[in-house]
Amino acid sequence: MKEITSAEFEQEVLAGGKVALDFYSTECPPCEAVAPKFEGLAKLYGADIKFMKMFRQQNKPLAEKLGVRSSPTLLFFDNGVQSPVTLSGGIKRSDIIHQLDSMLTNERVEEIKKEIKPTVSEFDVLILGAGPGGLTAGLYLCQSKVNTVLIDIALPGGQVATTHEVSNYPGFIDPQPGYMLGHNMSEQTKLCGTIYKVAVDVSKIDLEKKEVVVDEFETIRAKKIIIATGTSPNLMGVPGEKEMKGKGISYCATCDAKYYGDKEVVVIGGGNSAVEEADFISRFASKITMVHQFDALTANKQAQDKLFANPKVSILYSHEPRSFVRDGEKIITEVENLKNKNITKLVSDGVFVFIGMKPNIDLFRDKLELDNWGYIKTDEDMLTSMPGIYAVGDVISKKYRQITTAVADGTIAAIAIAKEIN
Fold first, then answer.
1. Cβ contacts of residue 403 below 8 Å, gap of 6+?
2. Would 119-232+357-421 and 241-353 be classified into the same CATH topology?
3. What is the pLDDT of residue 16?
4. CA atoms of 191 and 283, how far apart (whole Å)
5. Distance (Å, whole) CA 422 – CA 417
6. What pLDDT sits at residue 27?
7. How confident is the model at residue 89 (pLDDT cuts 50, 70, 90)?
8. Which among 351, 350, 369 has a CA at the least distance from the CA of 361?
9. Does domain 241-353 have CATH number 3.50.50.60?
10. With 80 as the cut, is the pLDDT of residue 255 above it?
């Protein structure tokens, strides 16, 4: 591993054979998450590929010339030719390996893979999920001197990190950007001492043995597990949705609204998320058509009043999507009037879907007692039906799912566990 500057780029990278180059920044959680993966892979692949790092802020002209617009960004070169593959943001170890393997012969890759030795780590508590519930549990546990590891397939923050604004979190007079609230929660827990393993691939979860395998080689064991895996957006299951997911159909306004400046979009849904995110999208889009299956919106009154006052937004009540079709750069959304069964075609530049969430429990669905909607049942200490397994946040069965209720769940589980372990 070697750190270089722009002045060394030509000699070290363009004339350097096979090279993996990491553009990083300071005060960058994704950069901190990818650093140990990059360094670990340098030990494995270092005899064949040179691993370089470059501080993006001090080498900005070169970064921009190479198309680097975020940190971290990994670029790959082979005899001076830059690969079209660029990795950025919450980079997984498996994604880096896939690109490194493509730069070598199959025979050499097999030799390197033989050098990978499985490892085992032991902790008191293992937290699955780094949203507000998991982060709060990690904070309370580390303050109780309980050896804790926090695992997430993404970066810390959960859905809060993709929420454009949080106006009802206690202690903040002004609305807070969601990503900053999530970032501050994460930094507080990290500084306390909780070990982070984020942007990893979770290969296996064994609740009976209380162990999790990440990145296919590291087994992490604990005395207790807290499940804080949260929820994911519901899909509509209509023709065209799967094909255009991420290619014109989005489930995250914070992530994608900025790409629809002065364009027309369709928003599906009528609850709090749909109404609040439609208002946010209107900062960019020129026109928004909301499609809602009921005769009235189900969002809170304050959010509705704000939306009704927005001249960019119109609402189709008692309608449901039936298909999505690509027409050049446009998307045609076919919607059915639920009262007279007439079909209308809405032409737009993009579609945002906010029709509720589902619990992320696929890897252990058959192991725990669930409610009728697939959420995990817990007792007052957040203990599930399995001894030593707790659950907190949006993944559990409860009436209200808010940041504050997730934080409360994490607090309760952590205190209960800390008392038992200590």
1. 132, 160, 166, 169, 181
2. yes
3. 79
4. 36
5. 8
6. 73
7. confident
8. 369
9. yes
10. no
pTM: 0.79
Catalytic residue among 252, 279, 349, 409: 252
CATH code reported for the domain at 119-232+357-421: 3.50.50.60
| Neighbouring C-beta atoms of residue 352, cutoff 10 Å | 27
Q: Look up 252 and say whether it is catalytic.
A: yes
Q: Given the structure tokens 């995990």, which residue do they identify?
A: 376
Please provide the average confidence, as pLDDT, over all residues in the chain: 93
Q: d(Cα 166, Cα 176) in Å, to the nearest integer?
A: 5
The count of other CB atoms within 10 Å of the CB of residue 223 is 16
The neighbour count for residue 98, using CB atoms within 10 Å, is 12
Per-residue tokens: 112: 């390197």
Q: Are 345 and 331 in contact (CB under 8 A)?
A: no
Residue 40: partners with Cβ closer than 8 Å, 6 or more residues away: 93
Q: How confident is the model at residue 414 (pLDDT cuts 50, 70, 90)?
A: very high
Residue with tokens 């979860």: 205
- Structure-block tokens of residue 201: 């691939």
Instruction: Show Cβ contacts of residue 65 under 8 Å, excluding neighbours closer than 6 positions.
Output: none
Domain ranges for the chain: 2-114, 119-232+357-421, 241-353
For residue 197, which amino acid is it?
A: K
Instruction: Exactly one of 124, 152, 256, 279 is catalytic; name it.
Output: 256
The single residue listed with the structure tokens 């069964």 is: 341
Closest C-alpha among 181, 219, 180, 179 to residue 197: 219
Q: Across the strands, what pairs with 87?
A: 74
Alpha-carbon span 137 to 384, nearest angstrom: 16
> H helices within 158-313, ranges in order?
178-192, 241-244, 253-256, 272-281, 301-308
Does residue 290 sit in helix, strand or coil? strand
Report the distance separating Cα 281 and Cα 358, nearest Å: 23
Q: Which CATH number does 2-114 carry?
A: 3.40.30.10
| pLDDT per residue as tens digits for the range 177-203 | 888 999 999 999 999 999 999 988 898
Q: What is the pLDDT of residue 164?
A: 75
Count of other CB atoms within 10 angstroms of residue 355 = 20
